[in-house]
């Protein structure tokens, strides 16, 4: 059966599923002729309308997974479906679009010429509207080669919107953007999801995953190691961070107290990683010179580091 022929909907796929990966395995061979597994039995189900952050350290299998979702490569075993069909069929139908980290742009064309040329491939596309949504209308006469990295990413975003996709895959979408451009970008994405678009994005900016994702999926060594809301994943590691402006001698005494696992100085502020923030607060207030005390939950980045390191330690076993 070829990919251009219709095929039956795979077992377990429901109308609410945008993408389903079942027991997907993908292997490659390196320059030395050694085989390695990039994706190792990955199971993933993406529902309509959700914003999914796809996280993992370098080499975890993120890019390989995205390539299989976009039909750029096929799994060695397992099954990948988009909207109940082969990925390439969904891409050809305009149901799927992607914003990748690099490539895909002609440097000598202007921004507007790029959008209009690629828009001609999608009947009914509105180049003017997508330029406005991507925040690049004022750049219309600028050559692509004269655009900054962040501006080129916004141009790729505009191009991805031309087909009015139902599923948008973003690989490091805000790389090179300044803070204001990032906020505008995510405001546009969130507006699109309110109209039914599903978004999956890979990023190294943990704060983006924390602020904008409905669901966070972490993979390491080609396997899922965490899946849930950002808050539920943060809760998997115990403790909080308490920081304060405090005299060095007091900080030394506090760092030696029970329940304090680590102490880091950044300028005049000291950060204490502790198991009991209430007890530490009482100590700081009653027995030290501490001022401007702040208590913060563990960050998604800390959870990411703890979970991925924990997974690797388990695989390596005792030394």
Automatic annotation (TrEMBL):
It holds the Pfam family ABC_tran. GO terms for cellular component: plasma membrane. It comes from the Bacteria. Keywords: Antibiotic resistance, ATP-binding, Nucleotide-binding, Transport. It is found in: Cell membrane. SUPFAM superfamilies: P-loop containing nucleoside triphosphate hydrolases. GO terms for molecular function: ATP binding; ATP hydrolysis activity. It is a peripheral membrane protein. GO terms for biological process: response to antibiotic. Residues 19-246 form the ABC transporter domain. PANTHER family: ABC TRANSPORTER ATP-BINDING PROTEIN (PTHR42711:SF17). This is ABC transporter ATP-binding protein.
């Amino acid at each position: 059966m070829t990919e251009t022929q219709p095929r039956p909907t795979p077992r377990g796929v429901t109308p609410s599923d945008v993408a389903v990966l079942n027991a997907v395995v993908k292997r490659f061979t390196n320059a030395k002729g050694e085989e390695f597994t990039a994706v190792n039995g990955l199971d993933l189900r993406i529902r309509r309308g959700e914003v999914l952050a796809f996280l993992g350290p370098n080499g975890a299998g993120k890019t390989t997974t995205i390539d299989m979702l976009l039909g750029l490569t096929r799994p060695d075993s397992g099954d990948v479906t988009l909207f109940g069909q082969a990925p390439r069929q969904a891409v050809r139908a305009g149901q799927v679009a992607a914003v990748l980290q690099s490539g895909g742009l002609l440097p000598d064309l202007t921004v507007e010429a790029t959008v209009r040329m690629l828009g001609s491939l999608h009947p009914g596309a509105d180049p003017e509207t997508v330029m406005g949504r991507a925040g690049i209308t004022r750049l219309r006469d600028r050559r692509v080669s004269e655009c900054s990295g962040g501006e080129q990413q916004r141009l790729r975003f505009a191009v991805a919107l031309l087909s009015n996709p139902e599923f948008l895959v973003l690989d490091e979408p805000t790389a090179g953007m300044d803070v204001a451009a990032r906020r505008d970008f995510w405001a546009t994405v969130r507006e699109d999801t309110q109209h039914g678009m599903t978004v999956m994005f890979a990023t190294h900016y943990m704060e983006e995953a924390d602020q904008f994702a409905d669901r966070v999926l972490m993979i390491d060594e080609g396997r899922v190691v965490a899946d849930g809301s950002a808050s539920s994943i943060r809760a998997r590691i115990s403790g909080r961070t308490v920081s304060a402006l405090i005299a060095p001698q007091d900080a030394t005494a506090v760092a030696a107290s029970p329940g304090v696992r680590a102490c880091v100085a950044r300028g005049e502020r000291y950060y204490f990683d502790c198991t009991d923030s209430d007890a530490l607060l009482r100590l700081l207030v009653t027995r030290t010179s501490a001022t401007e005390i702040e208590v913060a939950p563990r960050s998604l980045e800390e959870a990411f580091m703890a979970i991925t390191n924990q997974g690797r330690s388990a695989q390596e076993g005792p030394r």
